[in-house]
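We treat protein structure as text, and this decision shapes the records that our systems exchange. The tokens are whole numbers drawn from a learned vocabulary of local backbone shapes. Below, we set out a record of this kind in full and without editing:
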Amino acid sequence: MNPKRYAVIVNPYGGNRRAIAIWEQVRPLFVEAGAEVVVYPTEHAGHGRELAESLDPSVTDAICVVGGDGSVHEVVNGLLAREDKAQFDLGIIPAGTGNTLHDHLGCHEPMSAAEIILRGKTHLIDVVRVTMPKECVYCVNIVGWGAVTDIARLAERLRLLGTVRYSAATLWQIARPIVRSVKLKLDDQSIEDEFQLVIACNTKKTGTGMLLAPRAEIHDGKVDLVVLRHASRWQMLQLFRSILDGSHLSLSFVENYQVSSFGIESRSCDALNLDGELMGNTPFSAEVLPQALKVFV
């Protein structure tokens, strides 16, 4: 039976700050369907997680997130951290700068995403659990280390440049590449070497449409790792140009693995990029939790 009681979590501050307007655009569809809706605007960072962790399952059938990647990340972590293990169907309506999971699931536009939710068809998807010394984080999109984190961190400092800040940060990374010595664990295999970039993808795309893992499936029990060891500036430029269409996997210096668990141990405490959020540090271990989340599709 199609759930009729929805908790709608709206992030009015994320991305382009259009989440409230987008919800007002799709709300008539819920009214027409006879759905019971309670709207929860988030008020601070982490509020989405708090709401998802505390909603009463006796009065709520499903949760809808109106926001981007960051909002979805918060709600997923709240759902999977619940002490009562209560399960809710999850719907996502794109309203952020990055809408990666939305894109993978075919929720490209707000109206079509709302129609998908109201249709009531669900599918189980994988989640990646990242375990660090002091915390555990759940990811549905990416787990990134090295250059992918360096670029995101620099882009945050260049916010005044607007959307071109990511291109500027990428060019800086190409001009001044950083190589780090780590132990990379892939299932039962360990590789000790110098690396520039490791990114594990649960979805095909990340960021603003970069096709990082064209072979990735969100329900196969595995993540796709893109690994870069030693690369020249010219090779780095080739890599960042070709990830837009996924052709980087044909480059001889790019490695690609499909695994169910992975991890990184390093001499330094390196920052991580978890679903586009700069949080956590090495060392960490990660494993795929198959079919851990039920989403509307």
Residues 5-120 form a domain with the Rossmann fold fold (CATH 3.40.50.10330). The mean pLDDT is 93. The CA atoms of residues 29 and 65 lie 15 Å apart.
